[in-house]
TrEMBL record:
SUPFAM superfamilies: SirA-like. Residues 7-31 form the UPF0033 domain. Belongs to the sulfur carrier protein TusA family. InterPro entries: TusA-like, TusA-like_sf. This is tRNA 5-methylaminomethyl-2-thiouridine synthesis sulfur carrier protein TusA. It comes from the Bacteria. CDD domains: SirA_YedF_YeeD. It comes from uncultured Rubellimicrobium sp.
Length: 80
């Protein structure tokens, strides 16, 4: 899967990876995919939780070159 956009949040601590992802997702069209790179261990919990609350699909994560790689599909709705 080729992501449409990417956020490099490596080296940033909670809540910055989620805040950066949210900002980029707001400018994306429904169905587009965002790739988020993060090194904060809490991102593994925070990003899926954010997605479920905001109406996005967390497509999964993996470790790549020492960083978490999260794929998020922009949802049709965005929670207030």
């Amino acid at each position: 899967m080729t992501p449409d956009r990417e956020v490099d949040a490596r080296g940033l601590l909670c809540p910055l990876p989620v805040l950066r992802a949210r900002k980029v997702l707001e400018g994306m069209a429904p169905g587009e995919v965002l790739r988020v790179l993060a090194t904060d261990a809490m991102a593994a919990i925070d990003l899926p939780h954010f997605c479920s609350q905001a109406g996005h699909d967390h497509l999964g994560s993996r470790i790549e070159d020492g960083a978490q790689v999260h794929l998020i599909r922009r949802g049709d709705r965005v929670a207030a």
